[in-house]
Every structure is written in C-alpha cells, then in structure tokens.
Amino acid sequence: MARALINVPAKAKRGEIIAIKTLISHVMETGFRYSNTGQIIPRNIITFFECTYNGEKIFSAELHAAMAANPFITFHTVATESGKLEFTWTGDNGFSASETATITVE
Amino acid sequence: MISRFLLLLGGALAGVASLASAAEIPAAERRSAYELMSRETKAMQDDDTANPGTLWVLDGEALWGTKAGTADKACADCHGDARQSMKGVAARYPAFDSARRRPIDLEQRINICRTERQKASAFASESKELLALTAYVALQSRGMPISIAADRMVEFLDVGRSLFHRRQGQLNLSCSQCHDDNWGKTLAGNAIPQGHPTGYPLYRLEWQALGSLQRRLRNCMIGMRAEPYAYGAPEYVALELYLMWRARGLVVETPAVRP
Hints:
The structure holds 2 protein chains of 2 kinds. Chain A is built from no helices and 8 strands. By secondary structure, chain A is mainly β. The N and C termini of chain A lie far apart (about 35 Å). Chain B is globular and about 50 Å long. Residues about 5-20 of chain B have low confidence and may be disordered.
C-alpha cells in the first residue's frame, strides 16, 4: 500500500486561491536500467494523477519515465465551496492509490 | 649547508602547523549542512507534508505497533508510546552496550530488540523496514541537542577519530582534509559540509530514497576510491560514534533532506 501525504488548507475564504500539495511513495522505476545480472528492470511508474473537487476534475497530470521517485505534485485552485477533494494516482502493474481531503469554505 | 638545514627545519615546522590546522571545529563554528542548502531544499525539509522522509516515518509508526516474531510482541508492547519513551534516544546513539562491551548504533539496537525480545529475524541493512523504524525513533529526538556520553567508549572514540584522520583510498584523502580543513568551500561545484550526522536516516535527493549514515560513509569512501567496509562493520560504528561526538550540541533534524 502506497503512502500519500496531502496538504490542503482546512479552511479558506470563498474565492481565495489555495495551494494543494501532494506527495506519494513510489519507486518510479524508469524501465531503462539494468540489474546486476544484466536483466532490464521493467518499467514501474505512476502514469496518471487526477484531483477532483466535489466530483469536478480540477487538475490532472500525465507522468512519464525520468520523473523522480516519490513524486511531489503541487498546484493551485480557487476555493469555491466546502466539500471534498479526491486524489487518485494510477500506474503500471495495476497501481492505484487514492486519498481524500476536506475543505471548509467560509 | 646551514641554509639547507634551516629550509628542512622550516618544512618540518610547516608540516606541524598543517597538522595543527586539522584540529576539531570549535563549538561556535559548528554548522549543520542544512545551512549550506538551497532555499527550495530547506523548504522541503521544513514542511513535513513536502518532506519525503515523512513517508518512511509513517511506515515506521505502523511497524512500531505491529506484532512480530515468535514472542508475538510489538515495539509498543514494551516501550509504549514512542513519543514519550523514545524522546532523546537518537541524540545519544551510538551508545555503549554493556552485554557486548562495545558501542552499537540505533539500527543495531533495533535489530537486537527484534532478535532477542521479539524473537524475529533481524531486518537487513538499508531495508525499508529498518530505515522506517529508525527514522520513526529518531524523529522523536528532533530539535534536541546531540549528546554522546563517551566516558565508557573512549577507546572506540579514539578508533573513530583515527579513522577520520587517516588518509585512505587511491586519492589518499582523509575525511578530515575535507570536513575539518575545507568546509564551506566547494568540491566540483558542491558545498563541502562539516560532516555532522544531524539528520540520519535522511532523504537524499541523489538517492531518491531514505538512507543511513553508513550508506553515506560508504559513498564518501567510494569517492576517495577506498574499499568500503561491510554494513554493520565495527569501523563504521566507531566512525559514527566519533562523528556524533564531534557534532555534540547540534540539534537532531531527522528526517533531514539533503541534495
């Protein structure tokens, strides 16, 4: 089970621009490296990240080889209403992880 | 003839002077490598939700409460809440182990608990589990000054000190030549730190993972083209002991981030 860390402000004013920070544990093996025995190490990366805000997609990203291990993705959005932010990461070998965070907009 | 003698004498005196310059860094000048880092890397270490070391800490917290071995005990069954029982522990390791009559580092202490108390198999060196548990234990000392009680370990401290000052490898360098004599300058564009182990196990961007002080020492030795010791070797523990003693007074930063 992958560990993920989410940093979303618990409270925000309506219309305020908020920063969202996400960090997830993943090896991000590029698929270009060889093991000690000369075998190629198969690619194992996160390929897609998505964030929804009360069900509406507000941010998504495609990830590729040569991105660092434990990807840290940060982005901004406008705090429109109280509710739930859902984060999902999907990748090779059926990798899937999700996290949620709640925000109160005043 | 006399002038040549004086020249030789002068050379000998200069030799003595250069040895004297390899003296220990005074307490007022001791600095963590944190201060040499970029603003971005500092920000990464300072924010727990941006610090990838936190991922290991969380794994360590889970392991702390997980029963293991034939004794079917978790760390928490003996030690309770790590936030109280492990406070300050990492700041005084490596510590003297009376039964073994030698200093042991935090990783070895955890593995002794695993084999003797939990009756489980020891974690492999640099395994995710061992690093996670060590990071979780060391986190409880974050912000506390490093304080090594060296009185029972003087001979081991001397071994560590002599290893630190011994020239080795094909480049014929000692640790001291960089970290005592030339800290603050650059080596191939990288700042040379004083070499204080304040934040181990730490997340090194180059490794893209958490690693122990022994892994870092291994790196330095390969850099000097010396043959590294095996993980857990007594030489490493003596060096760790000397380095922690040398860093006394600096605060623990675990889990630190370094470039």
